[in-house]
Every structure is written in structure tokens, then in C-alpha cells.
Amino acid sequence: MSFITPDKPLEKEILPLFTTAVPFQLPVEWKNFIVKITPWIMLLLVPLYLLVIGLGTISSLFSAFTAHILSSLGTLCKVAGMVCSLFSIKGLFDRKREGWVWAYYAFLLFLVGDIFYLDFLDAIITFLISGYFLFQIREYYS
């Protein structure tokens, strides 16, 4: 695989955390498998996530916390992340850099959404697991 210059926001800083700094690199067979199933997972999870956001919005109408600005910003980030996930699907199927970049933006937006929700444990877990897999397969999208 060819070297891809990290040119997106924070990509240069995050890349070494999940490639050279981690002691365990995924075997090539696992990476190939993940690259094959990732678009299908995105295709299944986006409608499910839309349902969750919709149900969360309906339930928040009956909550006293609907005027909370951080929660509103968190929801906007999550919706924007979902839109980026939708945009990533075609590029992930075609194994193009554009698909990986949209998935990367979705990763960042979901992370920021968790921070706005003040759900720091989920933000840490999302960053570590999603970031690891996203950057392990990065080289397949040129």
C-alpha cells in the first residue's frame, strides 16, 4: 500500500497513536475483512442510528432538559456525523480515499457529540476502538 499524506484536521496528530504507538497491529487478513464489511456495517447502522436519534428527540420533548445547549449541540454533531457516514458509504465500497475521509469526519463528529453530551466514558471508548480500526485500515483507501 502507498503512503497517504495525513492532510485532514487532526489526522497528523492522531495517526501515530493508532499505527506506530500501539503494540498490536491488525493482521492483513483481518484488515481485508474489515475493509470488506465496513461499508455494509455503515449501511446498516445509519438507519438504526437515525431511529435512535428520532426516538431520543421524541423522548426529550417530555424532558425538562430540552433547553440544555450542550445537549442540542451534541445532537447536531451526532446528526452531522450520521450524514458524513452516509456520504462515506459509496467511497468505502469503491475503496477511495474520499470514503475514508467521510468516515473520519463522522468519527470526529461522533466524538465531539459525546463530549457535548458530557459522556466522557463513551467518548474515550469511541476514540480508542473506532480510531484504532479506522486508522488500521486507512492505507487501503487511496
Present the secondary structure layout.
Blueprint: H1 11-18, H2 28-60, H3 69-94, H4 97-116, H5 120-136
Helix pairs in contact: 1-5, 2-3, 3-4, 4-5
Describe the structure.
The protein is mainly alpha-helical and 142 residues long. The chain is built from five helices and no strands. Helix 3 packs antiparallel against helix 4 (97-116). The longest helix has 33 residues, at 28-60. The radius of gyration is 16 Å and the shape is globular. The chain starts with 10 loop residues before the first helix and ends in a 6-residue tail after the last helix.
Give the overall average pLDDT.
Answer: 86
Query: Would you report the number of β strands?
Result: 0
The major beta sheet can be summarized as: none
As a percent range, the share of strand residues is: under 5%
Give the class from helix and strand content and strand pairing: mainly alpha
Q: For the CA atoms, what is the radius of gyration?
A: 16 Å
Order of helices and strands: HHHHH
Count of separate DSSP helical elements: 5
Task: Give me a quick take on this structure.
With 142 residues, the protein is mostly helical. Helices cover 73% and strands 0% of the residues.
